[in-house]
Each structure stands twice: as structure tokens, then as C-alpha cells.
Amino acid sequence: MIRIAGLGLVALVLAACSGQSETVGAALPVGVAEAAGTATTPGVPAATVAFLPAGGEQLSPKDPIVVKASGGTLQAVAVTNPQTGNGVKGDLSPDKTTWTSKDRLRYGSTYQVVATAVNQAGAASEQRAEVHTLKPSGVATPALFQPASSDVGVGLIIGLKFDHDITDKATAEKSFKVTSSPDQGGSWYWVSKREAHFRPKDYWKAGSTVKLETTTFGMPIGGEVYGGQDVSATYKVHDSWIAKADGTTHQIKAFHNGQLVKTAPTSMGKTADTPPRGPTPTFNGTHTVLGKEEHKIMDSCTYGVCEGDPGYYSAPENWNVRISNDGEYLHENLKTVGVQGSANVSNGCLNMNTENAKWFFDNFNVGDVVEVTNSGGPQLTINNGHGDWAISWTAWQAGSALHG
Q1: Where does the record locate the signal sequence feature (predicted)?
Q2: Do 280 and 384 fall within a single domain?
Q3: Are 328 and 355 in contact (CB under 8 A)?
Q4: C-beta separation of 236 from 198 below 8 A
Q5: Please, which pLDDT band fits residue 276 given cuts at 50, 70 and 90?
């Protein structure tokens, strides 16, 4: 809805996201303008003012408020949100005929606009209006799946999590932009109605710079829901660090930029049905490092075996490198040193002695890769850390709303 009140010969056109135009104010008769007290000069028309771009009754907050003068120049433009008391900044064109707001507008807000134009004879005329931005039924605001970082591994998975369901995934996905240097391509994969991940076909190249940006703000993305505040992040990929852990050989090997630099015996999760708790095999598949803790209390109550239950434990562990959300770590475990390299007896973690555990702790960081094979366990899933790499490239592309 727009309300206008004018002094002088003016026209008002309001913009909205629909792209349609509607004239909502007409030129006032000269007699009315004069009665209102506007100075005129015989034979010199008053300057007119219009608000653009043209549209319906409500303005998308991603579009600017534009004020244009005809038959003269703009002397002053003031745009204020009376609900917040904040003014809106804008830029005046070199010829002083166009003013364009540069601050981001708000959803469901009313902006008071006052524009004063001066005609060729120096006579001023003023136009006042209220501009209303659209009020959607919901605003879906994205958050980064992986925070921006200048130090991540080649297994980096980036993505977005929204706080509302996205029913028009294709439209939303078009507003996501990922660039990498060197260029490696990639594709989006919708994990759920609210979450989408991005990765290339193969691991990122060491030394890459990856940038994620959204332009979803102000965009309808289905069900009368519009995009919320945009986000962006830049990631710097460090050297390639990839560990390969084999449940048959009970060895874990570390490769730095493709070169083998470390081999260590390990004990993975047990596959035998050993009382009081059954099999606890390590998940197969590509894991990435999610975080590290020098010292941590490993408590079985985190997976439902609490104090007083058979098999309960609460033990301090050192040099912990987390590789899944399900409690899997590379870490020191002195109780299993005797079988490290020969048997899998852990509760799912990759046990090592002190020296080897600390070496992995010192060298492996967030985004570095740990590939687990022959563990006897199920495949690591996409919602259990970064199981994204286990999905074939064909299936991954099919998970895109644009390419599936």
C-alpha cells in the first residue's frame, strides 16, 4: 500500500519485485499546487518526481528505492524507516536526476520518502510517499555448514543449512554460487528440505581457494517463503593429508601430498558380539577430520550405556582426532597397545599408542581425510560427519535440484 501527498506537479510510481508497473499518483492540477504554496514561473513546468522501478503495491527488500526527477534536478532525498528510526543511505547520480538507495531494506517495513526537486527556473516542489516492503509468510535464513577458514583439508565439505523448509529447491540453488581457484567444478546435493552440501567430483586440490556466496535474500523460494540474510565464506585448502586405515591389516598409513610419510599399527572397532556390548565396528568409507581435543573423557553414556549398566566406561583419552559425529576418533589407548596391529577390539575408534596418536594429532587437521576400509562396519552416512564422499559422483549430481 502506498500513500502519497504532494506539493507541485508530480507523479509517483512504486516498484515491487513482480516486475509489473502501476501508476499510483497522478499530476496535480496547477491550481492545486499553487494553492498549496509552491512557487511557479510562467512557462516553466514544475519538476516531476517518480519512484522506480515500477511494480505492485509492495517492494521486495532486495530491490532499491530509486527516485528520479524529470524537468529538473533533485535537491534532497530522505528515506526513513519510522519503525526503527533508521535512515536509508543512497547515492545521487552525477547529473543529480537519480537517487538510489544502497542500504539493504527490511521485510515487512514501511519507509517514508521525501524528495525535493528543483525545476529549470529554480522553483522547488516536494513529494512525500510511504513505501511498503513485502511481508512473507516465512523467511528462510541460511547458515554455513562449515565456517569460513584459512586452514582446511582437501576433504572439505561446504554447504548451507536453512531454518525453514525449502519447497522450491531449484530456485534456491540458482542463488548459490561456489567458485574455486584453480577451477574444479562441483555440484550441490540436497541432504534434506533444509540442507544442501557442495563438493567437487574428487578431493579439492591442495592450495585451492574456495568461495561460497548466496544471493537468496529477497527471493521467493516456495510456499510464500523468502530468502533471509545472505552469507558468504572463503576457504583456503592446505597441503593434502590423507590417511588410509585398513581393518584387515590393522594398519593406518598417512600420505602427505601423495607421499607415504607414516605407517602405524591400529585397533579399530570390534566386529565380534562380545558381552556386555555387541559389535561396535568402525564405519567404512571416507571420513574427514571434524575437530581435535588433546584430552577428553570418553563416556559410554553418550551412546546410552550409562553408569550402572553392563559395559559402562568413563575414561580419559589423549590426542583425540574426531572423524565422525558418532563418537569415532583417532586417539591414544594404552589398554589396546598389545593388540594394535593384530586385532580390532575398540568401541569404534582407531586406537594407537602414545607416539603414533600424537603424530596424527599434530599433523591432521579439519578437512583432512581418513579413508577406512575392511572395518566390517556399515558405510559412513552423510549425516554422520562428512560421509558425503561415499556417495558416487553420479548419485551426487542426481541430488542437485538443477541436475537431478
Answers
A1: 1-26
A2: yes
A3: no
A4: no
A5: low
